[in-house]
Design brief:
This protein starts with 6 loop residues before the first helix and ends in a 14-residue tail after the last helix. Strand 19 and strand 20 form a beta hairpin. It contains 15 helices and 23 strands. It is of the alpha+beta class and 620 residues long. The strands form seven sheets. It has a four-stranded antiparallel β-sheet with strand order 2-3-1-4, with helices on one face. It has a four-stranded antiparallel β-sheet with strand order 11-12-6-22. A four-stranded antiparallel β-sheet has the order 7-8-10-9. The longest helix has 55 residues. Part of the Sec protein translocase complex. Interacts with the SecYEG preprotein conducting channel. SecDF uses the proton motive force (PMF) to complete protein translocation after the ATP-dependent function of SecA. It is found in: Cell membrane.
């Protein structure tokens, strides 16, 4: 029978639409403005005394709050108004000091039954929720220069071990020059370098003032590898630092060859964000001092996890975290936690040299952190905050050296959680390459709210005009298209909520465009039905032919648009990606609603019975 869907297909459409309403529902519950308090030291717990201090600070500042939540080391307090966030943050930070990170946040209000189903609202981007935007540039020239300097030390050591006599090894910009007295020695060195460093150098030969020189220039691929490593390492470090801010859905991503974009929605204090992102941290490997060592050659430090425990270390540093190329936590043959460490050539040579004479002695890993400390002083009768930089050093590991260490070794004697933390600190305790802020923008919460209001108005205005036009031109079929359009918007919001997509202002523009494109497919179908009626087809045949013959046109048009949207997402950044995401999802949902949903409703209205005419408008 024409224009009759089987029961399973109608049920399938009904289930999809019902699920869409469920997973889009959390967006009806706007989040509360909140303050998040977290200890700056990893692993610390939120104590009742600290929570009491937070409450007292808010009460003293006459700031209303409710719904406090404590989850491990994090406390979250909801505020009555977003306007009170900055004042609440300042009051709590003043009360707790620099031992705690106080961040602005948004607390979800989604009902528990929706949360249990895995439903959650869309995340708002920087332009809708407000926050800060930084563009940071990595100094690749300085990083590559440092790597070339490491090659110089590495080559000198290796050539001595191979008994290849050289006059000198010098660095000239982005090149390493090796000088030899004889051509045979240069040839022997070239053969050794090609074997030891395959594909890393482009060697050139020169004769200068009686010396036979070998000039080594890094290949373009090797330079790219260095740059990629530096950028990835800096990305990891920045992501770990951003986590300290407690920001909901921060964005830290690569832009181009040497830049990193950091967007922190909900953060209004630019100085605080820069303070966290610019925090300098490093590691030092030192031997534990002998009992009879002079106090002038030793220093005493506390342990990071226990301030009451101390150890005396030698002042001489074996190597630093700058030499760590990789670190991972695992378990030894006895199932005890350990940290596997890899050093570069310079660090490995120094480690081997020192540990040859230090087997069965203990070596400490010292965490060195340069961080800001806030002090308060009176200026013209007004208390003002002043930030100074202080260096703090604490021991995170003190373990016995079981054998001579080289480029790869392990640290044992840790708990599992300590091993994981140590591996993380070794990997990302310091930036691989120096960075600087090249762009800085702040979006206020009021501007974000205004963007949301204007974006919502644009969607509503576009939707209203489309609904009216469809009713006027296509009557009952226009009403069917309008219902499908509403379902399409619900599907789009649900899909973006399920995958955790971030909604931005360009994303709202994509939704507006989707509204127009969704009814475009229905216009094609309805126009085709009108033509079939003019050609003498019966109403049932006209509906059947209209949907069937318009399908290929709709599919081709949407496929080409989808290809463009995918390309925009692949090559675009930031706002372009936001537009591409909503456009892509909108194309998929509009295809479903225009072809499946409207066909199902049309079948329910006209299918399976004798029909003399169709309420589709126009002259038929």
């Amino acid at each position: 029978m024409l224009n009759k869907y089987p029961l399973w297909k109608n049920l399938l459409i009904l289930v999809v639409v019902a699920l869409a309403f469920i997973y889009a529902a959390p967006n009806l519950y706007p989040p509360d403005a909140a303050i998040q308090v977290t200890p700056s030291r990893a692993g610390a717990e939120m104590s009742a005394a600290t929570l009491s201090d937070v409450r007292r600070a808010l009460d003293d500042a006459d700031i209303s709050y409710f719904g406090e939540e404590v989850n491990g080391s994090t406390a979250l307090l909801r505020l009555e108004s977003a306007d009170a966030q900055l004042a609440a943050k300042a009051a709590i930070q003043r009360k707790l000091g620099d031992e705690f990170v106080v961040a602005l946040n948004l607390a979800p209000t989604t009902p528990e039954w929706l949360v249990n189903l895995g439903a959650g609202p869309m995340t708002l981007g920087l332009d809708l929720s407000g926050g800060v935007h930084f563009l940071m540039e990595v100094d690749m020239d300085e990083y590559v220069a440092g790597r070339i300097a490491n090659y110089r030390e590495d080559l000198r050591t290796n050539l001595r071990q191979e008994n290849i006599k050289y006059r000198r090894v010098t660095v000239e910009g982005d090149k390493v020059r090796l000088s030899f007295r004889e051509d045979a020695l240069r040839s022997e060195a070239r053969t050794f370098i090609n074997r030891t460093y395959p594909g890393e150098f482009l060697p050139q030969e020169e004769e200068v003032e009686g010396n036979f020189d070998l000039i080594l220039m890094l290949t373009e691929q090797k330079v790219r590898d260095f740059e990629d490593y530096a950028l990835k390492q800096n990305l990891m470090t920045l992501r770990n630092r951003v986590n300290e801010l407690g920001v909901a859905e921060p964005l830290v991503q690569r832009q181009g060859r040497n830049r990193i974009v950091v967007q922190l929605p909900g953060v209004q204090d630019t100085a605080e964000a820069k303070k966290i992102l610019g925090k300098a941290a490093n590691l030092e490997f030192r031997l534990e001092a002998d009992p009879g060592a002079s106090r002038f050659a030793t220093e005493e430090y506390t342990f990071r996890d226990n301030q009451n425990r101390t150890a005396r270390l030698e002042k001489k540093v074996i190597t630093t975290g700058d030499s760590v190329t990789n670190a991972s936590s695992g378990f030894d043959e006895n199932s005890f936690p350990q940290v596997n460490i890899s050093l570069d050539s310079k660090g490995a040579a120094r480690m081997t040299q020192v540990t040859k004479k230090a087997v069965q002695r203990r070596m400490a890993v010292l965490f060195v952190e340069r961080k800001p400390k806030t002090t308060y002083e009176m200026v013209d009768g007004v208390e003002q905050a002043k930030t100074i930089q202080v260096v703090e050093k604490s021991i995170i590991s003190l373990a016995t050296i079981q054998s001579v260490l080289g480029s790869s070794f392990r640290i044992t004697g840790l708990q599992s959680a300590e091993a994981n933390e140590l591996a993380l600190l070794l990997r990302s305790g310091a930036l691989a390459a120096p960075m600087e802020f090249v762009e800085e923008r702040t979006v206020g919460p009021s501007l974000g709210a205004e963007n949301i209001e204007m974006g919502s108005r644009s969607v509503m205005a576009g939707l209203a005009l489309v609904l009216i036009a469809m009713l006027v031109f296509y009557r009952v079929f226009g009403l069917i298209a309008n219902i499908a359009l509403a379902v399409n918007l619900v599907l789009l919001v649900a899909l973006m909520s399920i995958i955790g997509a971030t909604l931005t202002l360009p994303g709202i523009a994509g939704i507006v465009l989707t509204v127009g494109m969704a009814v475009d497919a229905n216009v094609l179908i309805f126009s085709r039905i009108r033509e079939e009626l003019k050609n003498g087809r019966s109403p049932q045949q006209a509906i059947h032919e209209g949907y069937d013959r318009a399908f290929l046109t709709i599919f081709d048009a949407n496929l080409t648009t989808l290809i463009v949207a995918v390309i925009l997402f692949a090559v675009g950044t930031g706002p372009v990606k936001g537009f591409a995401v909503t456009l892509s999802f909108g194309i998929l949902t509009s295809m479903f609603t225009a072809i499946m949903v409207t066909r199902s409703m049309t079948n329910l209205v006209y299918g399976g019975r004798r029909v003399d005419s169709l309420s589709i408008g126009g002259k038929v």
